[in-house]
Amino acid sequence: MTTTATTSSTTTTTTVATTTTTTTTPIITDSAITTTAMCPNLSATAAGVLASRNVALDDSAWNFDPPLANPDEEFALAEAIRCSTGLTELHLFDSRLSNAGIDAIVKALQSTAIVLVDVGNTGIEDQAVSALVSLVATVPSLKVLYVGGNFICNMQPLLDAFAGKQGQLETIGNVCK
């Protein structure tokens, strides 16, 4: 007598929907630690503007590449300048600067020993001239000011402000609207 056993099996596949949440933790760099230690009240926005461009508060030259792109970054920069130590050069070439932003940045620079300021090709217009004249008048260390490539029609106040200084005012490429 032969007995045949048949075994059947059923496979059940259960699909479970899962949601994965990824949290990105910012990388803490030496400059970010230095920034926090040097200026504990610095806003996260200001610290981020510096960190995203590898700029530390104790650097002597700040080069904003990529350029500043919006008013929040302009005001964050002004805040960071007030915490800076030893800032002598500020390169903002190709940043988009508003009148309010340039005013805030200039006011912050007035308490520094800045030597060079590059606001070339930033879109500033005649309204910014009074702030820049104030910078030239109140910061004796300022020797070089680049303002070329903007929309400044009346350069005379800046020329007058620089008349008594040893320094360089670069105005090439301004287009009057």
* Overall spatial form: globular
Which runs of at least 5 residues are low in confidence (pLDDT < 50)?
1-33
**Helix-residue proportion:** 25-40%
* Number of DSSP-assigned strands: 5
Give the topology string: H per helix, E per strand.
HHEHEHEHEHE
Instruction: Compute the CA-based radius of gyration.
Output: 27 Å
What does the largest sheet look like? 5 strands, parallel
Spatial order of strands in the largest sheet = 1-2-3-4-5
Label the structural class: alpha/beta
Give the overall average pLDDT: 83
**Total helical segments:** 6
Taken as a percent bin, the fraction of beta residues is 5-15%
Q: How widely separated are the two ends?
A: 107 Å
Overall description:
The longest helix has 13 residues, at 71-83. Helix 2 packs across helix 3. Helix 5 links the parallel strand 3 and strand 4. It contains 6 helices and 5 strands; from the N terminus they run H-H-E-H-E-H-E-H-E-H-E. The chain is an alpha/beta fold and 177 residues long. It has helices at 30-38, 44-51, 71-83, 99-109, 129-138, 156-163; strands at 61-63, 89-91, 116-118, 144-146, 168-170. A 5-stranded parallel β-sheet has the order 1-2-3-4-5, with helices on one face.
